[in-house]
Amino acid sequence: MSTTKKCVAVAVGLGLVTLSACTSSDSGSGEGASESKTVTVVSHDSWAASKSVISDFEKQSGYQVKVLKDGDAGQALNKAILTKDNPQGDVLFGVDNTLLSRAFDNDLFQPYQAKDSDLLPPEYRIDRQKQRVTPVDFGDICVNYDKAYFEEKGLTPPESFDDLVKPEYKDLLVTENASTSSPGLGFLLGTAAKYGDGGTSRSSEAESGGGWQDYWTKLKANGVKVVDGWEQAYNEEFSGSAGGKKAKGDRPLVVSYASSPPAEVVFAEPKPDTAPTGVAYGTCFRQVEYAGLLSNAKNAKGGKALIDFLISLKFQADMPLNMFVYPMREDAQIPEEFTKYGAPAEDSEIISPKEIAKNRDQWVKSWTSLVLK
């Protein structure tokens, strides 16, 4: 293991952000390595944290925090796997339950039981035997709708997966590619959880008798549009987005998150009294994000301290209005703006990581053949 912390050159499009200066104090790196004053977290592009909160960690720990933003969750994981022998950082944050088995299969993480991890909900601590990852936050991938469009048309917004294949919603939905996008994959998994695989329906109310494949055949026939990623879907294709740099799209339904409406309110100037977008809560899939100490981390000691910090009350309470996710700790205070406009789904579809690992690649392959060809 290297005895010094080295800066890593990365490809164009990868963000490198240094968040304030550190104070000097003793800090160790990996086993047998010399001191390092820097701890690096590799994450997706949605990483965000208040500078004051990061500064508090730096003052208390003596480490300087660097963040490498590496595309969406899938892209960040793929790069971490490719560079695992000489990793870009010490901690990977943002690998979710849809992709977690891929990280485990590639021996990406080393064991570490985070301080206060026993305070986290047990249903999300899925790797308690080996302690390779720590759950940090959760959110719901759901269809969002443009309220103004449906009010203008005198049309009731859809509420469920079944609604989306009805004629009145033809050519209204845009979603992300399940093979390239985390929310796109989550939406596919939501339909698999709802309708089963190849005829094994999990819902007596399901209109589809041929599993998720039959459902997507109907959705395709009803004009669903597929784009590469969330940024394009939400900010370019969706008619209800206020955050895009380009002209609004013409699709009033988009696969996004239950937390997207509060984001529309928080970032609007002036702030509206109500969110301009709504959530079809019958279309949600629960997404859980994890953090893990990379197997060949150059600063393992700093990485452990950072993971402890990610589930501290201070960082957990800071997450909602920065990354628009729900904190994992139930005792973390959630801002009123977030709870008022972005309540989590009460009955999200869920698939166990074990079942996702067993079926994900084949489901994505089948989905690609069915929907994109």
TrEMBL record:
NCBIfam families: sfuA (TIGR01254). One of its GO terms (molecular function) is thiamine binding. It comes from the Bacteria. PANTHER family: ABC TRANSPORTER SUBSTRATE-BINDING PROTEIN, THIAMINE-BINDING PERIPLASMIC PROTEIN-RELATED. GO terms for biological process: thiamine transport. This is Thiamine ABC transporter substrate-binding protein. Gene3D superfamilies: Periplasmic binding protein-like II (3.40.190.10). Keywords: Signal. One of its GO terms (cellular component) is outer membrane-bounded periplasmic space. Pfam families: SBP_bac_6.
